[in-house]
Amino acid sequence: MTGAVPEAGEPRTNLRETWLLAATFLVAVSGLIYELIAATLSSYLLGDSVRQFSLVIGVFLSSMGLGAWLSRYVTRAMEGFIWAQILLGVAGGFMAPLVFYLYAWSGAVMLPLYGLLILIGVLSGMEIPLIARALKEIGAPEFRFENVLSVDYVGALAASVAFPLLIVPHLGLMPASLTFGALNLLVAGLSLWVFRAVASRTAVVIWAAALFLTLAGLVQAERLVSVAEANLFEDDIILSEATPYQQITVTRYRDRTRLFLDYSIQFDSLDEHRYHESLVHPAMALAPRRRDVLILGGGDGMAAREVLKWQEVAHVTLVDLDPRVTALFRDHPDLSALNDHALSDPRVTIHNMDAWQFADSSDQVFDVILIDLPDPKNLALSKLYSRQFYGALVERLSAQGLMVTQAGSPLFAREAFWSIAATLEATRNPLAPVQGAGLHVRPYHAYVPSFGDWGFVMAAPQVLTAQSLRDLPQDLRFLDQQVWQAAQVFGGDTEPVAVEENSIQSHALVGYYLDGWSRWFE
Fold first, then answer.
1. Which one of 96, 211, 335, 370 is at 20 to 30 Å from 457 when CA atoms are compared?
2. 345 is catalytic
């Protein structure tokens, strides 16, 4: 294809120009969606979302640069663009299914994910230069390269808005990958028709085969997801759902229920009482008052269930980011039974918002604050274990209030555990602001089979002098006075070590956490 004169029977130049600009928008959408799918997959399966998103963006953009450079060696711009769309439809469409299946059967993630990401980036990088050349070759009137870039950027904006709000909640990652693979193949198919004078029989046959495979995958997407997840989890999956915030999976074996968020276990109904009794009751027992209680995290309602065992409790405020989690554990008959329908109790008020935002904006005062947030495996979560966050929470404590946080494993991530304790000790004490004193802390731990040796840190502005737990509820299954005494003793491999406090400037905690767990399990 060379000049501006259309071949016999070929559509006019203005139609071809309009289609190429429309194709620019569509390929920009699909390209960014692939990038977001890859970043989400890596954060689900490899952890540390900030690091993984950063790596994916860097690799993808550099691959696009390579693709843009390689496009100069494509002699026929329109044919090259069509082939790029066919290959993108296959590589991008089957990226999520392939990565999920390889992870489920072999545990491999890095090589297939980043290999496909580089291929998709190279092909995506070739698109705009080839479209620009094709527009020049058809003699598009008043062609300007910035028009192509403008359409490309608008497509990227549309994709970035749609991904968290529409695509992940309503499609999920595997069907989304196949759907946008089909979109690339649709672009290829329409380009084959609009520029049929340059379309080869080979391209048409391969395009048709790729489209058939992708549509077949879409039809069987639910089954593909079920088969992959069946190999990821030991038990039967009774619920699997993607939200704008995370992947929720609930499994069951006989009367045993487990919750996974982003494929990481959150509780096992067989032993969750050990964790939640240890988190809740020491602080409740030692607090002089327990009328108003704040729970940060704990959207499954288990901590609220334990809090409501104290008759003095008049009001529980539960703050959890994901409204779908709290809705499931409030309304689903099987899941709400696990927390004794605590989230439907009239004393419980649920706020679906960020914990920091709540601490910063609320003017409420609480007698006990329970922090049941995910582990600090990335910067976004690390800030919720920082001196600045704890400082905001102290402002929400009553004069004799107590707060306690889950603090990870003092065995598997020893430095991380003691960093959390050191951070609370460094947090400004409102009862002694002039002296610059920190909070008084009491670290303790308990064995939870699903997690191993698990730690907690209690903190208060006043000295924590009481050693015994008074007036514990009668129906506890694990915690008693003897268990509490033992919980405050740390062995030689879990005792305190010299560590840095965690702040939003340093985020020392993330490194401690990742290094500790990788030392044991990688």
1. 335
2. no
